[in-house]
């Protein structure tokens, strides 16, 4: 988006609405589908406006980290593919994809939504490893929030595969589900000029002065924060963002 387009956007925000007709504090329409990928142990597709994200969960048996012999492993990664947006190039994950994966990973991990001790099979030897892969199918902004919702929805539908004679049988899933005790929701608030907006589109993201992603559990506790952009937030703006994030996280959690 060029400077002229940003000026038009600011005029719209000054009037209290955005290019797509939303108010500054409105989410786009949210759709959640689960159990879509037969080759994964859990999966979900999330549409947030025109942003579409797919998340898949794979379980495998591996060795625990040396300093955490009684804990399983949880990992979240994101891959941005050229099919999602015209400016994305193929190749190894770039800094944007790495940040998305790490922000979502931290929110889930710090919320303690998955009890990693329950993933231990033999202390110090064998544990379940939970890998969550997030792939945007269409990038129209706010991949972090959409990806976090997709990851959580996929984890909530995850079932362990059968184990036959000590070998994991991925073709047959058991009735045992992965226990997800909490529901951390990521809410990203962007700053353009003096305005704070919820759920920015790609056009809005391209001109954001700053953004702050808050991940909040249903107990109202903040699990993680991630700031982007060079422009600072004032103390009053941070207070407004925290209040918005609390309200919006509750709204999204109800749809899960």
Give an overview in words.
With 256 residues, the protein is α+β, with helices and mostly antiparallel strands. It has one domain: GHMP Kinase, N-terminal domain (Ribosomal Protein S5, domain 2), CATH 3.30.230.70. The chain is built from 5 helices and 12 strands. Strands 1, 2, 3, 4, 5 and 6 form a 6-stranded mixed beta sheet that branches. A 4-stranded antiparallel beta sheet has the order 10-9-11-12. The protein has a two-stranded antiparallel ribbon with strand order 7-8. Helix 2 packs across helix 3.
**CATH topology title:** Ribosomal Protein S5, domain 2
What oligomeric state do the depicted chains represent? Answer: single chain
Shape type: elongated
Low-pLDDT stretches are none
Separation, N- and C-terminal Cα atoms: 34 Å
The overall average pLDDT, rounded, is 91
Tally of alpha and pi helices: 5
Q: Largest beta sheet, briefly?
A: 6 strands, mixed
Short synopsis of the structure:
This protein is of the alpha+beta class and 256 residues long. It has helices at 3-14, 95-110, 143-156, 202-205, 235-255; strands at residues 30-34, 42-48, 51-62, 73-78, 120-122, 126-138, 159-164, 167-177, 185-192, 195-198, 210-216, 222-228.
Keywords summarizing the entry:
Ribosomal Protein S5, domain 2, elongated, 256 residues, alpha+beta, four-stranded antiparallel β-sheet
Please render the helix and strand layout as text.
Blueprint: H1 3-14, E1 30-34, E2 42-48, E3 51-62, E4 73-78, H2 95-110, E5 120-122, E6 126-138, H3 143-156, E7 159-164, E8 167-177, E9 185-192, E10 195-198, H4 202-205, E11 210-216, E12 222-228, H5 235-255
Parallel strand pairs: 4-6
Antiparallel strand pairs: 1-2, 2-3, 3-6, 5-6, 7-8, 9-10, 9-11, 11-12
Helix pairs in contact: 2-3
């Amino acid at each position: 988006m060029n400077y002229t387009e940003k000026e038009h956007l600011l005029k719209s925000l000054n009037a209290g609405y955005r290019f797509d007709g939303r108010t500054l504090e409105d989410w786009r329409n949210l759709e959640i589908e689960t159990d879509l990928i037969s080759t994964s142990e859990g999966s979900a597709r999330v549409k947030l406006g025109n942003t579409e994200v797919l998340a898949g969960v794979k379980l495998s048996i591996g060795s625990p980290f040396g300093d955490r012999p009684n804990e399983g492993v949880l990992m979240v990664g994101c891959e941005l593919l050229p099919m999602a947006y015209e400016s994305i190039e193929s190749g190894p994950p770039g800094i944007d994809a790495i940040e998305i994966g790490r922000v979502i990973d931290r929110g889930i991990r710090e919320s303690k939504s998955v009890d990693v001790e329950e993933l231990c099979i033999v202390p110090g030897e064998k544990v379940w490893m939970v890998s969550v892969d997030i792939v945007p199918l269409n990038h129209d902004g706010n991949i972090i929030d959409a990806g976090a919702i997709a990851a959580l929805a996929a984890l909530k539908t995850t079932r362990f595969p059968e184990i036959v004679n000590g070998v994991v049988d991925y073709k047959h899933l058991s009735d045992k589900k992965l226990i997800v005790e909490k529901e951390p929701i990521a809410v990203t608030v962007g700053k353009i000029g003096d305005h704070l907006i919820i759920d920015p589109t790609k056009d809005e993201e391209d001109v954001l002065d700053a953004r702050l992603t808050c991940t909040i559990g249903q107990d109202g506790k903040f699990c993680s924060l991630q700031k982007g952009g060079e422009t600072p937030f004032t103390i009053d703006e941070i207070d407004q963002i925290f209040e918005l994030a609390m309200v919006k996280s509750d709204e999204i959690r109800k749809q899960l």
